[in-house]
TrEMBL record:
<dbReference type="InterPro" id="IPR026870">
    <property type="entry name" value="Zinc_ribbon_dom"/>
</dbReference>
<keyword id="KW-0233">DNA recombination</keyword>
<feature type="domain" description="Core-binding (CB)">
    <location>
        <begin position="13"/>
        <end position="102"/>
    </location>
</feature>
<dbReference type="InterPro" id="IPR010998">
    <property type="entry name" value="Integrase_recombinase_N"/>
</dbReference>
<protein>
    <submittedName>
        <fullName>Zinc-ribbon domain-containing protein</fullName>
    </submittedName>
</protein>
<dbReference type="GO" id="GO:0015074">
    <property type="term" value="P:DNA integration"/>
</dbReference>
<dbReference type="InterPro" id="IPR044068">
    <property type="entry name" value="CB"/>
</dbReference>
<dbReference type="InterPro" id="IPR002104">
    <property type="entry name" value="Integrase_catalytic"/>
</dbReference>
<dbReference type="GO" id="GO:0006310">
    <property type="term" value="P:DNA recombination"/>
</dbReference>
<keyword id="KW-0229">DNA integration</keyword>
<keyword id="KW-0238">DNA-binding</keyword>
<dbReference type="InterPro" id="IPR011010">
    <property type="entry name" value="DNA_brk_join_enz"/>
</dbReference>
<dbReference type="InterPro" id="IPR050090">
    <property type="entry name" value="Tyrosine_recombinase_XerCD"/>
</dbReference>
<feature type="domain" description="Tyr recombinase">
    <location>
        <begin position="117"/>
        <end position="284"/>
    </location>
</feature>
<dbReference type="Pfam" id="PF13240">
    <property type="entry name" value="Zn_Ribbon_1"/>
</dbReference>
<dbReference type="InterPro" id="IPR013762">
    <property type="entry name" value="Integrase-like_cat_sf"/>
</dbReference>
<dbReference type="Pfam" id="PF00589">
    <property type="entry name" value="Phage_integrase"/>
</dbReference>
Length: 363
């Protein structure tokens, strides 16, 4: 979205004063409060380090010193990773702010994010133990709504009774991380609990009236009673579990991206790594099932009865050969593969589609 130009005297203002004009601009364009706060935190961090200079007085050296000093004074490797991820966004936001002020001559290098580590997920037994350890309906709603919808903790805490549509089993999320409204679907356990709870709530009441700290402590307490490793439990683990289970059960990557509210599908693809064992099993079915050995035969050679038998046994899998390209990501499909190697899409589900013959054309 293109930003309107700044006031004519913007160069004479200090960084923090100029940001107030920037804030008004973002608000006029419909940016939500959380996004504006993120911009403010980044610009404030730069302003405090550099002495809050006038926009006209900012130098390339100021920017270089800010980034270098902020990243070099962290010795602990885990803290450094977090700092680098924070400064990835800080540098993005400061760059956009300075460009808006007209200082396009300044180069703000974007700090690279550190690679994601594979997120921990909960097993079926752990989820059941957590449910059994809940003391009341609010506990059960927290556990099940987080798992069955994959919402972020911050989104859960903003859901109001009027956002819940029990008839269609939907929840409209209005206060999301990136300010884009989206819809998630209510699972069976959450539906049962909400059906009882919603009757006692007014339209504007929050369905989980807790602070983030209160939610965090409550989940830790449930985990302790359940005998689940407390050190690994936090609200976001349910989001990871939801994403992984959704892919295991056949949900395609694009649909999962929309449900999770990811702006980039690359973020969603992280969860494919957690399906390594499932993908390995599918691979072994193809290559180690006793009928995958390939024999090179002379085209003029008459088929033996053995070859005809193998051909007949494999007839049921021939439909898979008609699917040449993944309809989700466009990657070429390996012969007989049941899942796309690139995005994890369940190719075998397309066999139920009566128009298989049209799937193999790559456009």
């Amino acid at each position: 979205m293109k930003l309107p130009p700044p006031p004519a005297n913007i160069a004479e203002k200090t960084v923090l004063d100029a940001f107030e004009d920037f804030r008004a601009t973002l608000m006029s364009l419909g940016y939500n409060e959380k996004s504006i706060k993120s911009y403010y935190m980044a610009v404030k961090n730069f302003a405090m380090f550099s002495g809050n200079p006038r926009i006209a007085d900012i130098t390339q050296i100021d920017i270089q010193k800010w980034i270098t000093a902020s990243l070099s004074n962290v010795k602990n490797s885990e803290k450094r990773k977090k700092r680098m991820n924070t400064f990835h966004y800080y540098t993005l936001f400061v760059r956009k702010f300075l460009q808006w002020t007209g200082r396009k001559d300044l180069v703000v290098p974007i700090v690279r994010k550190t690679p994601f580590s594979e997120p921990h997920v909960l097993g079926e037994n752990e989820l059941e133990a957590l449910n059994q350890a809940c003391k009341d309906d609010r506990d059960r709603l927290i556990i099940n709504l987080l798992f069955e919808t994959g919402v972020r903790a911050s989104e859960l805490l903003e859901i109001r009774a009027k956002d819940v549509d029990l008839k269609n089993k939907e929840i409209i999320l209005k206060n999301t991380k990136y300010g884009r409204q989206r819809t998630v679907f209510i699972g069976p356990r959450s539906y049962d609990i909400l059906s009882k709870m919603i009757k006692s709530l007014r339209p504007n009441d929050k369905i989980v009236n807790l602070s983030y700290h209160g939610l965090y402590k409550r989940i830790k307490s449930i985990a302790k009673r359940a005998g689940v490793d407390v050190s690994s439990i936090r609200p976001h683990i349910f989001r990871h579990t939801f994403a992984t289970e959704s892919l295991k059960r056949g949900l395609n990557l694009s649909a999962l991206q929309r449900l999770l509210g990811h702006s980039d599908i690359k973020t969603t693809q992280i969860y494919l790594h957690l399906l390594k064992e499932d993908i390995k099993k599918e691979y072994e079915k193809v290559f180690y099932n006793g009928s995958s050995s390939v024999q090179i035969r002379n085209p003029s050679h008459e088929k033996t009865s053995e070859e005809k038998t193998v051909e007949t046994q494999s007839a049921g899998s021939q439909d898979l050969l008609k699917i040449k390209y993944c309809p989700m990501c466009g990657a070429k499909v390996i012969e007989n593969a049941k899942f796309c190697f690139n995005c994890g899409y369940p190719i075998h589900q397309l066999l139920a589609n009566s128009s298989l013959e049209t799937v193999g054309t790559h456009t």
